[in-house]
Each structure stands twice: as structure tokens, then as C-alpha cells.
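User: I've been trying to design a sequence by hand for this structure and keep getting stuck. Would you show me what you'd pick, starting by listing the structure so we're on the same page?

Assistant: Good idea, let's start from the same input. This is the structure you sent:
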């Protein structure tokens, strides 16, 4: 058991566990898995504004999502504290390392490349700010326009056999590939 807790679980263990939790929530509790809508519920609960978009009964529709999002944060903090990983470096294929080096990303130690995700990278020029602000706006806009985020559509929507979720997931992957192969080389 100690070996299982020593590092990341393999995909063939973690994937089915995630896949079984969602139908259980849908079938047994009538609850939908969603995190991107939690920001709207949080704003409706805490901001006494006169914005029509935030005036609804968030307790009835959003309390579950807020509790779920809080559980994700608390669970992540507990896991990071009680189950630390000695070497968090992601194992990348040599071809991927070579492609990243071609884009100027040489430091691939840790969970994310420090060449992209650090204060130094953010302050290095306009590209860091474009990625941060533009990417954040596009993620928020896309999640709102698609009616949910990647995990909501890919896990819950597909488990619930919703055609709009399939279209959204295909769009997410197509957009990710386009940004990776077309836009990212221009920014870096």
C-alpha cells in the first residue's frame, strides 16, 4: 500500500476511478460534476451587485458546485502535505524534449516548464503577458460559451451521452492542437 501512495497512480488505476465517480454522482445523487460554473456561484454568493447574471438562487443551483470546488482545494492541499512526491519531474519522451528545446523551452524539470510558468518568464516580455492574460480570457470565454470546461464536458457530458459535450470536447482538442502547433511557436 505504501508503494501505491509513493507516486502518481498509473492511468489504468486513476482513469477508471474517475470514470466510476461521475456516473455514481449522476445516478445516485443527481449531481453534475462541474467546476467552471463555481466562479459564477461564488460571485452570486459574495458580491451584492445588481448584475442580472448574478441574481439567482445560488443556494439551490450552486451550493453543490461550491462544496465540490472547496473539496478539490482542500483535498489537493491534504494530498500535497501528506503525500509529497520526492521527484515531481514529468517523464517526457526524448522527441518531446527535443521539440520543446526547439521552441526555447529547455528547463523541463518539475511539474511545469519553468521557462513558461515562473515570475521570470512572466516578466521576460510581452509574450508572457499575452499568454497569461489572453489565455486566461480565452479559457474563461470558451468555458462560458461552451457551457462548461474541459473536465465538465469530457467527464460528465460524455458519461451522460450529451452530443453538445462531444462537440465541445472535439473543439477543445482541435483548439489545443492549433494553439500548440500554430500559435505557440509564434509567441516563443
Amino acid at each position: 500500500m505504501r508503494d501505491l501512495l509513493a507516486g502518481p497512480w498509473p492511468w489504468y488505476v486513476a482513469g477508471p476511478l474517475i470514470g466510476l465517480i461521475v456516473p455514481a454522482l449522476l445516478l445516485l445523487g443527481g449531481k453534475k460534476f462541474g467546476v467552471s460554473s463555481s466562479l459564477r456561484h461564488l460571485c452570486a454568493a459574495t458580491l451584492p451587485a445588481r448584475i442580472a447574471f448574478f441574481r439567482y438562487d445560488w443556494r439551490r443551483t450552486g451550493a453543490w458546485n461550491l462544496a465540490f470546488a472547496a473539496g478539490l482545494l482542500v483535498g489537493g492541499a491534504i494530498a500535497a502535505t501528506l503525500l509529497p512526491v520526492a521527484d515531481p519531474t514529468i517523464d517526457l519522451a526524448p522527441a518531446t524534449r527535443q521539440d520543446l528545446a526547439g521552441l526555447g523551452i529547455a528547463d523541463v524539470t518539475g511539474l511545469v516548464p519553468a521557462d513558461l510558468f515562473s515570475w521570470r518568464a512572466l516578466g521576460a516580455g510581452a509574450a508572457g503577458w499575452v499568454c497569461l492574460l489572453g489565455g486566461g480570457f480565452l479559457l474563461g470565454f470558451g468555458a462560458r460559451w461552451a457551457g462548461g470546461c474541459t473536465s465538465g464536458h469530457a467527464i460528465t457530458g460524455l458519461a451522460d451521452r450529451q452530443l453538445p459535450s462531444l462537440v465541445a470536447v472535439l473543439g477543445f482538442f482541435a483548439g489545443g492542437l492549433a494553439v500548440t502547433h500554430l500559435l505557440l511557436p509564434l509567441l516563443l
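That's my pick for every position. To get oriented when you compare it with your attempt: Residues 115 and 151 are 26 Å apart (CA to CA). Residues 58-82 form the longest helix (25 residues).
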